[in-house]
Amino acid sequence: MLDIRRHNAAFCCDHFLKHCGEQVRRAIKDHDMIGAGDRVVVAVSGGKDSLALWDLLLGLGYVPDGLYLGLGIGEYSDASGHAARAFAHERGLKLHELDLAADFGYDIPSAAAATHRAPCGACGLSKRHLFNAVAVEHGYDVVATGHNLDDEAAVLLGNVLRWEAGYLGRQHPVLPASAGFARKVKPLYRLGERETAAYCLLRGIDYQVEECPMAEGNRHLGYKEVLNALEDRSPGAKAAFVFGFLDRAHDRFTDDAGAEREGLQACVVCGSPTTSDVCAFCRLQERVGSRADQPR
Amino acid sequence: MVLRNPRREVEMPGPLTVSALLERLDVNPESVLVIQGDTLVTRDARLSDTDVVEIRPVTSGGAA
Q1: Contact criterion met (CB < 8 Å) for B41 and A155
Q2: Nearest to A166 by CA among A260, A280, A252
Q3: Looking at CA atoms only, how far is residue B3 from chain A in angstroms?
Q4: Using an 8 Å Cβ cutoff, are A15 and A5 in contact?
Q5: How far apart, in whole angstroms, are the C-alpha atoms of residue A252 and residue A34?
Q6: Under DSSP, is residue B43 helix (H, G, I), strand (E, B) or coil?
Q7: Which of B33, B39, B41 is facing A194, going by the closest CB pair?
Q8: Which residues on chain A are in Cβ contact (under 8 Å) with B33?
Q9: pLDDT value at position B5?
């Protein structure tokens, strides 16, 4: 049914599903991701990773709520939202919903136009800010995101190519809670994208299969292409890269990450933690709003 | 055969293995799932002329 060469194995359906559950269980246990009694919210996009994560956590006995953020990317976002709602509805799960346009006055296309930058930057910034803000507001202890092994390998490659010491120090399956921040965990980090996609397929989970149209050609995809070329020639390369970093190199960069978190203060607009007077999210809102007000 | 992203149909002479199909299409096996009919298949699965095959990309474009 599915061959995973880094495990030197091909799995039947039952054993593959068991394999996925075991990898997530191990990730949670190894890194103390979720404690007894912790309230968990899963950041849900409607894609394969976040829905697989939500399903796997349910299978392991957790009862997390979901949080979906509408990004305003046309039909892509419509389909993503539908997938997230359908998953939650079918299982009687609670799904918080925010919409960038309705709740904050902008969407990703307008943010990209206003900032003259790749939309992925505004998207990531918006998600990180709002997932945390909702978690803190509603008293969740943990925000779980669907970052998988391929995501972590691609981010690691980018950080290493540029020797981004602060980012390397923060790249970890768990970011502990701190003032104004909920704990952030990545329980899927031991599973590759083929595995999360196969999990959804075999579990009958309808997910947003189409790629985000605004991500086409971005750097992150480029890194993934390079890493998959390596993996095809050398099975296990991605896992060795990520797990080896976590085991033997991550600690060398934690001081750099700590230095970046010093001097956090409350944003004068929204109160979220920031190193400047106004946080990046509020600055983005202001910038998009300013551009929207300009005569054409 | 049906390919996604972009969606298209291609004529491909069978029989051939999944590996051979992906090689002919210049698709990295690490970036896709291959579905024969409604069954997920491995690289060594054999495909025939009459099979309906979906090659589903699994790579997500969003940065962390």
Answers
A1: no
A2: A260
A3: 12
A4: no
A5: 25
A6: coil
A7: B33
A8: 2, 194, 197-198, 201
A9: 56
Domain that holds residue B23: 2-57
Residue B63 falls within a domain, yes or no?
no
CATH code for the domain in which residue B21 is found? 3.10.20.30
**Domains in chain A, ordered, with CATH?**
2-293 (3.40.50.620)
Closest Cα in chain A to B43:
A3
Nearest to B42 among A10, A196, A215 (CB): A10
Token look-up 């952030």 returns A184
Peptide bond between residue A295 and the one before it cis (omega within 30 degrees of 0): no
Does the residue B23 lie in any domain? yes
**Across the 296 residues of chain A, what is the mean pLDDT of every consecutive 10-residue run?**
91 96 98 96 97 98 97 90 97 96 89 83 88 95 98 97 94 93 97 97 93 85 96 97 97 81 79 85 81 48
The answer to whether residue B40 is domain-embedded is yes
Q: Do B42 and A3 touch (CB under 8 A)?
A: yes
**Structure-token match 């690490």, residue found:** B30
ipTM here: 0.90
Q: At what angle do helices A149-161 and A219-233 cross, to 10 degrees?
A: 110
